[in-house]
Each structure stands twice: as C-alpha cells, then as structure tokens.
Specification:
With about 150 residues, the protein is an alpha/beta fold. About 40% of the residues lie in helices and about 30% in strands.
Length: about 150
C-alpha cells in the first residue's frame, strides 16, 4: 500500500471581502511542495476552498489523500452539506443560492478522482502543517498587495 499524500490547506483574507490568499502544503513521504496564491478582492471562505482545489489539481495521478483544514466550512460543506445542495438544485435549505457554488462544483469534481479523508484542525494552534499553510496563505495576500 502506498503512503497517502498529506495536504494542509488554509485561506486568509484582510477584510472580508478584501485582498486574500490561499496556501497548501503537500507532503508525500519525504517530499514536500508548497503552493500559494491570492486574489485582490475575495472572501476568506473562497480562499479556503481554492486552497484545497489548487492542492488537488496539482496531483498528477489518483491518490489516497489526507486533507487537514482549519475550515469547518470546507470540511462540513464537502462531507455533508453538498449532498443537500445538489438535491436542492444548488440552493440552501432556506432556498437561497449556495455561496461559492462555482468552487463547490469544482471541488466536487476533484474529490471524485481521489480517496480522500478529511480532518479538521484548530487554526493557529500547534499543528505545524497548518501553521505552514497559514504562512503560505499570508504570502498569497502579500503577493496580491504588492501588485496593488
């Protein structure tokens, strides 16, 4: 059995909406890869989702994946809420359009390609991978701000 790809993701936003960044740390055995980016006007939830999407997009083949996120929004959304949203035509239980539906659709397609286990970690705690993903997300914010 091959080792899983371990992914830590995080999003950051300075203002909500405002300039935002996303970061992902991918680990496979002894190898590591860092990814980050940002957008000039976005929300924290969008950055959290994009971090996971970009990490999964970077995988070159189907894999067993352990994803660690400090976002309950991402974890609950992909594990639970998305099934109801799909049944309801991408509307919430109170019939409002699902926020970030474009990203949820993208993530939904990507998760089907892999065997994924989702883990929630407390943000800004002592989880090294989460701290590194947070630093990468903030690099994404800084990169966007330097362009602005």
């Amino acid at each position: 059995m091959t080792a899983p790809v371990v992914i830590y993701t995080d999003g950051a936003c300075k203002g909500n909406p405002g300039p935002g960044g996303w970061g992902a740390l991918l680990q496979y055995g002894r190898r590591e890869r860092e990814l980050f980016g940002g957008e000039s006007r976005t929300t924290n939830n969008r950055m959290e989702l994009i971090a996971v999407i970009r990490a999964l997009e970077s995988l070159k083949r189907t894999a067993t994946v352990e994803i660690y996120t400090d976002s309950q929004y991402v974890k609950n959304g992909i594990e639970t809420w998305i099934n109801t949203w799909k049944r309801n035509g991408w509307r919430t239980s109170d019939r409002k359009p699902v926020k970030n539906a474009d990203l949820w659709l993208e993530l939904d397609g990507l998760v089907r390609e892999h065997d994924i286990r989702w883990h929630w970690v407390k943000g800004h705690a002592d989880t090294e991978g989460n701290q590194r993903a947070d630093a990468l997300a903030n690099r994404g914010v800084d990169a966007v701000r330097s362009l602005g």
